[in-house]
Amino acid sequence: MSIFDIFAKLEKERAEKEASNKIEFIVVGLGNPGPKYDATRHNAGYMALDKIGMKHGFKADRAKFNALVGECNIGGHRILFMKPTTFMNNSGEAVGEASRFYKIPPERVIVLSDDISLPVGKIRIRRKGSHGGHNGLKSIEAHLSSSLYPRIKIGVGEKPHPDYDLADWVLGKFPEADRPAFNKSAEDVTDALEYLLDGKFDEAMCKFN
Known about the structure:
The protein contains seven helices and seven strands, in the order αβαβββαββαβααα. The chain is of the alpha/beta class. The protein has one domain: Rossmann fold (3-Layer(aba) Sandwich). A seven-stranded mixed beta sheet has the order 2-3-4-1-5-7-6, sandwiched between helices. Helix 3 runs parallel beside helix 4. The protein is elongated and about 80 Å long.
């Protein structure tokens, strides 16, 4: 092998490595940082992201972009996983910064969020849509200047009665009786994500919605 062949081989290997390390998607689990908010309904996105990490062998524990982040390859796709630490209402600050840095369009930013309109144990996949009054989604929409980002909504159940304070409900912890159903929904999120990464939205919605 000539010196030119060696250099060509090294350059090919370098290019392949660079391509394999290029971030293609951002997956965001929404929640609030700190022990006070652990296992609360509003942290369903954090918890689902942790479940994904358990399956695929990574942790979102490195500080970057005003978030805790981790990286992983799933199905040949390199993904940045994020848990914004800006608190829920300012989640878009972290997501916008990361998407601009990696030049990721909204269509490749997948958001995992809690949803009080769904019962515990259910998820709903949407290719795009309105924020529906969810402050975390509202912030992301503002910082991406788009509502064209996919989202997986995770059911946390409705308020027990109309007069119940919404903040108290979403910042309350899941009761033990709801844990098995929530864990099942987090597993569904993990499985559904693999469909979305491959662009199989219709199949994912038919199977999981």
